[in-house]
Write a structure and sequence with these properties.
The complex is a heterodimer of chains A (316) and B (294). Chain A has 316 residues and is an alpha/beta fold. Helix content of chain A is 27%, strand content 17%. Chain A is built from ten helices and twelve strands. In chain A, the strands form three sheets. Chain A has an eight-stranded mixed β-sheet with strand order 4-3-2-7-8-11-1-12, with helices on both faces. Chain A has a two-stranded antiparallel sheet with strand order 5-6. Chain A has a two-stranded antiparallel sheet with strand order 9-10. In chain A, helix 3 runs parallel beside helix 5 and helix 8 runs parallel beside helix 10. With 294 residues, chain B is an alpha+beta fold. In chain B, strands 1, 2, 3, 4, 5, 6, 7, 8 and 9 form a nine-stranded antiparallel β-sheet that branches. The chains are: A alpha/beta (316), B alpha+beta (294). The interface between A and B is large, with 38 and 35 residues.
């Protein structure tokens, strides 16, 4: 499995324990065992999926990450963090909300990240029109736009487990980072009924490669090709943390809308992308096992489709 | 190729479909219009392009309008290959919860957006904020654009085959491929349905009817046989029962799904639990299809 450049995972986890995860509202706190000068804090047992509901997007994002053990658990000090948010279009309910992104960037910086970069091949004007570009600037992160038509900016990556996709073309700059935080908005998609963490990774893959996921003629090709390609792509990209904007999103005419808006007012965080997608699909009545992409991701061993088997916390 | 339609003055439209400034009730072009043609639709809306290509897409004209600094409306005029394609796109994007508007050959206002169609054009207007002034702007601009569109053209004849009694008009969907069908009625994603056109409508008595046209009776017969096999073998369905020209089965929600062939057509019905209606509508649909001159 190819992934962003990383510090030793074991070292990272130990450092997280030493530093202690962020404290929660209501008294949860992290253990600071073995680190001189730190106060002793209670051990945090992070959950597998944290879904926080509320009207303040910044606060519920912060809380969701805290329930996952805090950003320090995923972002070592001095690390380079890349974020993949969705800035496709400025129609309501189609892009990651700026305040959700703001919270994540700020938490990364507070955790001691050396750099926080938002990667994208979406043109800059979309980042401006969605308000996401402004948040990137205000929070001291960088927006790294890759020219979508310059294939030299993408690296060929073999997909050994691929059933439909055998070669991905991942942004070269992705590999310059230590940590990857995936920040989609969950919503409807005309191609496969649902888009969330797994499909968001097409934002790291070159548009030319992505085009092959979409067969040109549905009179002669079936629907599942897209979903299988997405699941295959996910086998070569590891997400350290998924933070999903599920506050307000379209449930018809996706991915660009305009469409009917659904407003669960939740931010959902987790590390198991299949489980997070499965959870988010239920927010508008979809059955995860009926979303082919989620099923194929599960079959690839990427995560648990029956998220109820995991530790799920839903709170306000 | 993406083409930029430069305008020396934002007060005068540079595209024949765009209204003149004096007809826009105070709305003004925020920037130059853009046009995306053919494959470049993927540049504009990525994977959202598939459905337009399935119907038959030529180009889309995009223009943003503003009033003051806080109110923005996006206009998209999709030029499709033929009026049937435009009608299909309209029915695909249309929801069932809005209110009718008088522009084009059919139009609906929903929440913060407005869709209508005329001839080979499907028009969408989106408000980027929910201020009353912006929502009103959707209708103001729609009226102005409507006046620029060419004359009306007949919608596909198949769309009129659905019985009208009890039909929920905004639920009608006209399809030209598996992607549209999958969005209207998710069945077997690995099945290549390979049909020519289809229409689906929901009825107030709790059932839906779908007519799917194939190239000929042999093709519809082959697909019916494939569906029989799939439904009878699938663990997602139960109570499979073969009938003379079709079959009936139940899904996990206990809805009855029935299908039969009728010449070049496959007719499907989906009936909610505890609903016994549909028989007379089904028979009327069959009669309508038989009398169609396609």
């Amino acid at each position: 499995m190819t992934m962003a450049k990383k510090v030793s995972r074991r070292t990272f986890i130990q450092k997280s324990v030493d530093l202690g995860a962020a404290s929660l509202l209501g008294g949860l706190a992290a253990s600071g065992a073995g680190c001189a000068g730190t106060e002793e804090k209670p051990v945090v047992e992070p959950v597998d999926i944290a879904a926080v509901k509320g009207t303040n997007r910044f606060e519920i994002t912060r809380r969701a990450v805290e329930l996952m053990g805090g950003m320090e658990r995923y972002v070592p000090r001095e690390s380079k963090v890349c974020i993949l948010a969705n800035a496709q279009k400025n129609n309501p309910g189609t892009f990651t909300h700026p305040e959700v992104l703001r919270a994540v960037i700020r938490m990364c910086r507070q955790a001691g990240a050396m750099e926080v970069n938002c990667l994208s091949w979406i043109p800059r004007d979309r980042w401006i029109s969605t308000g996401l570009g402004k948040v990137v600037d205000e929070e001291g992160a960088r927006l790294k736009i890759v020219d979508m038509k310059d294939e030299t900016r993408f690296r060929s990556v073999e997909v050994p487990a691929g059933k439909k996709l055998f070669e991905a073309r991942i942004m070269e700059t992705f590999y310059e980072h230590d940590v990857f935080i995936n920040m989609p908005i969950c919503k409807d998609h005309v191609g496969n009924r649902f888009t969330g963490t797994m499909k968001n990774l097409m934002g790291l893959n070159s548009p030319k490669s992505n085009r092959t996921f979409h067969t040109g003629n549905f009179k002669n090709d079936n629907i599942e090709h897209l979903d299988q390609c997405i699941a295959d792509l996910n086998t070569v990209i590891r997400c350290d943390l998924c933070v999903v904007d599920a506050t307000e999103f379209i449930i018809t005419n996706g991915p660009f809308g305009p469409g009917e808006l659904n407003r669960p007012r939740k931010v959902v965080a987790g590390t198991d992308r299949v489980a997070v997608d499965a959870y988010c699909a239920t927010l508008w009545g979809l059955k995860p096992e009926e979303i082919i992409m989620i099923d194929r991701g599960h079959k690839h061993g990427l995560g648990e489709i029956d998220f109820k088997k995991l530790r799920v916390t839903e709170t306000v | 190729m993406l083409s930029q339609c430069s305008s020396p003055s934002r007060q005068q439209p540079s595209h024949p479909l765009l209204p003149a400034a004096e007809n826009l009730k105070g709305w003004r072009a925020k920037s130059d219009p853009r046009t995306f043609e053919g494959e470049d639709l993927f540049v504009y809306i990525n994977g959202g392009a598939d459905i337009y290509n399935e119907y038959g897409f030529k180009s889309v004209l995009v223009q943003e309008y503003e009033k003051g600094e806080k109110h923005t409306v996006i206009l998209e005029v999709f030029a499709m290959n033929d009026p049937g394609a435009a009608y299909g796109v309209y029915t695909f994007k249309n929801g069932a919860k809005g209110r009718k508007v008088p522009w084009g050959q059919g139009g609906m206002f929903e929440d913060y957006y407005l869709n209508f169609w005329q001839g080979e054009y499907a028009v969408t207007l989106t408000a980027l904020d929910d201020a009353p002034q912006t929502l009103q702007g959707l209708e103001e601009i729609a009226e102005a654009v409507d006046a620029r569109l060419p004359e009306a053209a007949p919608k596909p004849g198949l769309a009129d085959a659905l019985p009208r009694e009890g039909l929920i008009e905004p639920s009608v969907e006209y399809m030209r491929g598996s992607l549209g069908l999958f969005n209207a009625l998710p069945l077997f994603a690995d099945c290549v349905f390979g049909f020519t056109e289809a229409v689906k409508g929901d009825y107030r008595e709790g059932y839906s009817l779908l007519a799917v046209l194939y190239s000929d009776a042999a093709a519809s017969g082959r697909m019916l046989e494939e569906l029989k096999q799939r439904f009878s073998e699938s663990t997602d369905y139960n109570d499979y029962c073969s009938q003379e020209d079709g079959f009936q089965v139940k899904d996990r929600g206990d809805r009855a799904i029935f299908a039969e062939s009728s010449g070049s057509y496959i007719i499907l019905g989906i009936r909610n639990p505890n609903t016994s209606a549909a028989e007379s509508s089904l028979n009327e649909l069959k009669r309508n299809l038989e009398s169609f001159a396609l």
